[in-house]
Amino acid sequence: xxxxxxxxxxxxxxxxxxxxxxxxxxxxxxxxxxxxxxxxxxxxxxxxxxxxxxxxxxxxxxxxxxxxxxxxxxxxxxxxxxxxxxxxxxxxxxxxxxxxxxxxxxxxxxxxxxxxxxxxxxxxxxxxxxxxxxxxxxxxxxxxxxxxxxxxxxxxxxxxxxxxxxxxxxxxxxxxxxxxxxxxxxxxxxxxxxxxxxxxxxxxxxxxxxxxxxxxxxxxxxxxxxxxxxxxxxxxxxxxxxxxxxxxxxxxxxxxxxxxxxxxxxxxxxxxxxxxxxxxxxxxxxxxxxxxxx
Length: 294
Hints:
Elements: E1 11-16, E2 22-23, E3 33-39, E4 45-46, E5 59-63, E6 69-70, E7 79-80, E8 95-96, E9 103-104, E10 117-119, E11 128-129, E12 142-144, E13 151-152, E14 165-167, E15 173-177, E16 190-191, E17 195-199, E18 224-225, E19 237-239, E20 247-248, E21 261-264, E22 289-292
Parallel strand pairs: 1-3, 2-4, 3-5, 4-7, 7-9, 8-10, 10-12, 11-13, 12-14, 13-15, 14-16, 15-17, 18-20, 19-21, 21-22
Antiparallel strand pairs: 5-6
């Protein structure tokens, strides 16, 4: 644990022998001049803070028995700890996890701005993308979620400003989202397949102006739209289905400056929505028509 932490004499590339496939907690933490790690055997465990705050760390490389080098390093991984590569701002491996992955620590890749894609397609044992796991990874373009995914936790993709597509393995999956899950994903365009959200946290889609499919329209979807959930989303139309949300938090749809049409006409008037939040549609500069069932 912490065997090379805070060691400024470690610089450039470090090669680990075939017995070093479990990386202890804090092993290379704060090695500011470390640029790459070469594995002779793919890692199975990467501990907490193992490579955190290594700002020049660019890549993990795998050198196989035939002396071929690849960046396919994560395919045998079983566990990656909290903050394992946090703030490795130069780290640029594209990440494909394999079938053995069963633990994903919070903020494990926080601030790794060089990563461009992440795939959990072959990870049946991952049910949750943990808190802040890829927060601030603003180079990520595409994400492939696991086949058994049920929840994306708080801030899991917060600030991934180049993220365009969230790819789902099946149609009509049901997901829960934590607070600020996609906050600031300003280029997020779509979910690849139809999806229903059974729960969302505050601010989860705030500042996602390019998202074309609006999940709150789904029948049997959300009962409650929390505060700031869809603020600043460039929405022009909101149309609620009969089994749509019944209550709204503060600023739930605020600052959608092009919002001009809100349709509640499909609601049963005996089950009209509550209005417990304040400033729900604040800043809708062009708001004009509201349809209600009579």
